[in-house]
Amino acid sequence: PVHFEWKKDETAEVRLTVSSDPQMKNIVQEIKSNEQKTDLVLASNQSYYWRIETETEKSPVSEFTLAQLTEPTLKSPFPNQIINSGKSPDAAVTFEWQDQAMSNQFEVVVAEDTAFSTVAVKRQTKLTKLNERLKVGTYYWRVQSSHPERSLALESQVQQFEVKAEAQEDSKVALPILTEAPPAVEVVKANR
After folding, report:
1. What CA–CA distance (Å, rounded) separates 120 from 132?
2. Within 13 A of 57's CA, how many CA atoms are on the CB side?
């Protein structure tokens, strides 16, 4: 439920109107009350407009959005993805995630262990995409989202990926492999 509170004269009856448009034409809910608060059940992932009216006054129209609080969904690198760095000791890695909770700040953490005690990257961003260079190795990553009007930070699942270099060819000259023993040679010393 959405909690509404307002101030009023003790004897005044109040009408709370919630609409899906700022002109207050598409009424979603409307209640009359002698109280100074109420709770309404409204659908998530939608913007609403509301105002309070008494017989003599109307409040300005205010807007709010109900967002379903779901953690960020990691998109790339996908679980157990191997990112080839070619012959380079590091690779460009693009991190992408999806946010349904209308967050405005994200913290991306990439670590070398599942406990996140050896952190390779820790970045703050307002975007849902981040590019980083990482050395060859196995990594774990997660994203935490936040919003100033929310006290709760939402954290994604942890995913593993690997940055791998191509096998380097040995630059030594290969020696021939003998499959048969050479014929025995006898050295005879002749006396003259």
Report:
1. 10
2. 9
Helix, coil or strand: residue 81 = strand
The strand pairing partners of 30, in sequence order, are 17
Q: What is the DSSP letter of 78?
A: P
What pLDDT digit, counting tens, does each position of 109-136 carry? 999 999 999 999 999 999 999 999 999 9
Name the residue among 156, 154, 134, 133 with its Cα closest to residue 145: 154
Q: Quote the pTM value.
A: 0.59
Structure tokens at 80: 């157990």
| Residue 31, amino acid | I
Element spanning 32, H or E: strand 27-33
Give the whole-angstrom CA distance, residue 30 versus residue 47: 16
The burial of 159, by beta-carbon neighbours within 10 Å (0-12 exposed, 13-18 middle, 19 or more buried), is given as buried
